[in-house]
């Protein structure tokens, strides 16, 4: 674990998954709002490149959030350097699309640990450092509202994360620590391109993939307004919640949704042909 030394700030945000397509953009948005940012990720080289680009307002911390001992050390380092933090934002996530019978034990473990267990343990360990009026923000997914055929483990982790966030919100609100979840559809990042190459769901393209900047702007809104849940696109979230009032409707609507997603995927793939070839 390695930190760059910098001066104390009035506002400090910790971001997991900070080297991903969304995480990197979020660092930029937080800096624009005068936060000091602690980047948490496993790739030292990528974090050093980001730190060099953004300068002294960003620090790097190597931490595998699937390893509780590393998370505990993260707590000690942040406490010694900052004392308290103003925001904890969970961007780390992964997915191995495919039917359950083709998932190895390792693939199962990695998805649940990164998408659910790791987020829970990081939150538990860093909770003593959160100030009053601070925020915990989970980047969830519309796949945490709607079950994804062919990505059952991803759905399991994200559904679980939603339940955890809602319960935690009730637990922490009296302490004036606010918990928000953001539910985006597909985000146009390298992770999405890799998912699609490995057989990801066509449902990602029922609506055009979001830009990372759109999601980052919603994170900044959540830091300010502190609502429990945000859906991107908003109307998609409302539709899914209505459908899930009677889950049997999902089976009836799925053929239509898959056809719509297949058409959207063709349009997206045509526009992103060069990026798909490079990744």
From TrEMBL:
Source superkingdom: Bacteria
InterPro entries: KR_dom, NAD(P)-bd_dom_sf, Sc_DH/Rdtase_CS, SDR_fam
Residue intervals passing through the bilayer: none
Keywords for the protein's UniProt record, in alphabetical order: Oxidoreductase
Keyword Oxidoreductase: yes
Sequence ranges assigned to domain Ketoreductase in this UniProt record: 11-190
Family designation: Belongs to the short-chain dehydrogenases/reductases (SDR) family.
Classification via PANTHER family: DEHYDROGENASE/REDUCTASE SDR FAMILY MEMBER 7B, DEHYDROGENASE_REDUCTASE SDR FAMILY MEMBER 7B
UniProt protein name: SDR family NAD(P)-dependent oxidoreductase
Species this protein is from: Commensalibacter oyaizuii
Source species taxonomy: Bacteria, Pseudomonadati, Pseudomonadota, Alphaproteobacteria, Acetobacterales
């Amino acid at each position: 674990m390695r930190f760059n030394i910098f001066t104390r700030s009035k506002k400090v945000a910790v971001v997991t998954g900070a080297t991903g397509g969304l995480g990197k953009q979020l660092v930029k948005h937080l800096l624009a709002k005068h936060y000091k940012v602690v980047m948490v990720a496993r790739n030292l080289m990528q974090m050093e490149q980001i730190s060099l680009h953004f300068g002294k307002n960003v620090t790097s911390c190597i931490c595998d959030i699937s390893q509780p001992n590393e998370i505990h050390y993260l707590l000690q380092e942040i406490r010694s350097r900052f004392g308290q933090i103003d925001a904890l934002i969970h961007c780390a996530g992964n997915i191995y699309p495919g039917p359950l019978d083709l998932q190895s034990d390792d693939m199962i473990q990695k998805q649940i640990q990164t998408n659910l267990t790791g987020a829970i343990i990081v939150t538990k360990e860093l909770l003593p450092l959160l100030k009053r009026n601070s925020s915990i923000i989970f980047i969830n997914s519309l796949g945490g509202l709607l079950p994804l055929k062919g990505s059952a483990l991803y759905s399991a982790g994200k559904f679980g994360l939603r339940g955890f966030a809602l319960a935690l919100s009730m637990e922490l609100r009296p302490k004036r620590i606010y918990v928000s979840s953001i539910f985006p559809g597909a985000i146009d990042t390298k992770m999405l391109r890799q998912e699609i190459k490995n057989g990801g769901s066509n449902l990602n393209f029922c609506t055009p993939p979001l830009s990372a900047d759109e999601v980052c702007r919603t994170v900044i809104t959540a830091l300010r307004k502190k609502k429990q849940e945000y859906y991107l696109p908003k109307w998609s979230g409302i539709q899914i919640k209505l459908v899930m009032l009677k889950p049997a409707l999902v089976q009836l609507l799925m053929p239509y949704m898959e056809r719509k997603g297949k058409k959207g995927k063709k349009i997206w793939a045509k526009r992103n042909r060069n990026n798909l070839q490079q990744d």
